[in-house]
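hey can u check if this looks right to u? its 121 residues, i copy pasted from the old doc so theres a chance i mangled smth
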Amino acid sequence: MLQIYQCFCEKTRLRIVHLLLGGPMCVCHLQAALEEPQVKISRHLAYLKDRQMVEAERSGQWMIYRIPAKPPSLLRLHLTCLQDGVSEEKVFQADLARWKLLRRELDVQSACSARQPLIQA
């Protein structure tokens, strides 16, 4: 439980976990949605990964991060609490709104070019 609270006590990590509850994302998408520097996002993702709060998988040149498919029961309980509580906080809603807008833009761009397909989140 201490490990979960250590991860959740930092605002950026909490915002990352909140977005990952919606599905897998790459670092660049988290960076854009949170409007934070890539190095900061990567550092927090490494912290979360080292503590088994997120999983990572390489897809071509991208590292895709996600909440573990079968999180331990205590983590699952706290993730549910996070989902229930974010509706009260404007920063989480703003992050989600930016991600939804960015995702629509990426969908349009990927449909108009032969680039790497968008990783679905």
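Confidence is low (pLDDT under 50) at residues 110-121.
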